[in-house]
Design brief:
Belongs to the SVF1 family. This is Ceramide-binding protein SVF1. Keywords: Cytoplasm, Endoplasmic reticulum, Golgi apparatus, Lipid transport, Membrane, Nucleus, Transport. With 378 residues, the protein is mainly beta. Helices cover 7% and strands 54% of the residues. The chain has one domain: AttH-like fold. The strands form 3 sheets. Strands 1, 3, 4, 5, 6, 7, 8, 9, 10, 11, 13, 14, 15 and 16 form a 14-stranded antiparallel β-sheet that branches. Strands 17, 18, 19, 20, 21, 22, 23, 24, 25, 26 and 27 form an 11-stranded antiparallel β-sheet that branches. The longest helix has 11 residues. The radius of gyration is 20 Å and the shape is globular. The two termini are 29 Å apart.
């Protein structure tokens, strides 16, 4: 135990030194020559690195009947000492009463297929089809949430830049960390989740995101903002994180606009602004009340594009104290880091917001359904 404690102390450490913004090679640099790359099966492979990292596959669902859900697999490795996997299911109560259904279960006997494309565990299968454009998720891990879902692309997936990855380290040729997101921004969803008191029909639209944090999460980012916005014609996605001061409080923003069959725009010239905030009593973070998301760049056929979603978030769906939810082993590590207080604020306004697009001088406005998160870590 003494050896383990001393090892974990070395793994976690305290705040990093101030390396400066030059110690992060943002994916933004890649977009100067390659705005985005379509997702193929190689990008979708699980990496299962032997060093400290967290990989996630998250499936967001906006059902035609108004239900908002996500299911998620988390695979984490702590410096090669301990590997865990977790399966999460969340069904949001949109009435504002806060009666969300949340199921989070550790997985046993987890493994990957020989191509590192599909994931399995006791009572769980997450399978990518041969064509690489559809996932099937089946779970009886928790008898309170029986999952039977299928996600199929209706638009190409993308990573921003050449490989979607930002690299951390003072020597660009030998980075010590990384961050990557791969998106399927527009999918059709079939299937359901059966709870003990209701079966939720989840036919509708969805978003799939595969993320890799190839370093300690609290060292990679201090803040996050995420939006998934779905209209009848378009899907808008954006993921922004801000590094801790050790990497110059650098903002990295990746996102895009797609519609059925095509990527309209994808790149890193996007921005998020919290227009109005209020200090949250439960967490002491400045929780957003109104946010503006902006996408700016060129379409795949060379037209200038601007897009905006802006407005009041309404009552939050949930505030997650991450330290109360993560597996105990990870909690014991992250909890010893001074200044680390991770909270996630989740929103889906019942007053519909609109996506306002200008493509080559032509304006388009469509109402849509939004799910967003604002995360504060340190």
């Amino acid at each position: 135990m003494n050896w383990l404690k001393s090892t974990l102390s070395a793994v976690v450490g305290t705040e990093e030194p101030i390396y400066g913004p030059e110690a992060i090679q943002s994916v933004t640099k890649q977009t100067e020559t390659t705005p985005f790359t379509e997702v193929d099966k190689d990008i979708l492979r699980w990496r299962a690195h032997s060093y400290t990292n967290v990989e996630t596959q998250t499936f967001y669902i906006m059902a035609d009947n108004g239900t908002v859900v996500f299911v998620q697999v988390i695979y984490s490795n702590i410096v090669g000492i301990h590997t865990t996997a977790q399966f999460n299911v969340k069904i949001f109560d949109l009435s504002g009463k806060g009666d969300n259904k949340w199921y989070s279960d550790p997985l046993s006997n987890f493994m990957f297929d020989e191509h590192m494309l599909s994931f399995g565990a006791d009572n769980l299968s997450l399978t990518l089809n041969e064509e690489g454009n559809s996932y099937t998720i089946k779970s009886t891990v928790n008898d309170g949430s029986i999952v039977d879902l299928k996600f199929s692309q209706t638009a190409p997936g993308f990573v921003v830049g050449k490989d979607g990855t930002s690299y951390f380290g003072t020597d660009p040729k030998n980075p010590w960390g990384s961050m990557r997101h791969a998106f399927w921004p527009r999918c059709s969803v079939e299937g359901n989740i059966a709870t003990k008191d209701k079966t939720y029909d989840l036919a509708g639209r969805g978003v799939f995101i595969m993320a890799l944090q190839g370093m300690k999460p609290h060292h990679a980012a201090a803040r996050w903002n995420f939006i998934n916005f779905q209209t009848p014609t378009y899907s808008a996605i954006m993921m922004e994180y801000t590094t801790p001061p050790s990497y110059g409080s650098t903002k990295v923003n990746v996102g895009g606009i797609v519609k059925d069959g095509e990527v309209v725009y994808a790149g890193a010239t996007n921005s998020v602004e919290h227009l109005e905030t209020a200090q949250d009593e439960g967490s002491d973070w400045p929780a957003p009340k109104s946010i503006k998301w902006d996408w700016t760049g060129q379409t795949t056929d060379g037209k200038e594009l601007t897009a905006e979603v802006s407005g009041a978030l309404g009552p939050r769906l949930d505030r997650i104290d991450v330290m109360a939810e993560v597996p105990g082993f990870i909690k014991s590590i992250a909890g010893s880091v001074a200044g680390t207080r991770p909270y996630i604020f989740q929103y889906s306004p019942q007053d519909k917001l609109s996506l306002k697009l200008n493509i080559g001088g032509e304006d388009v406005t469509e109402e849509g359904t939004m799910f967003s998160e604002s995360t504060f870590i340190s």
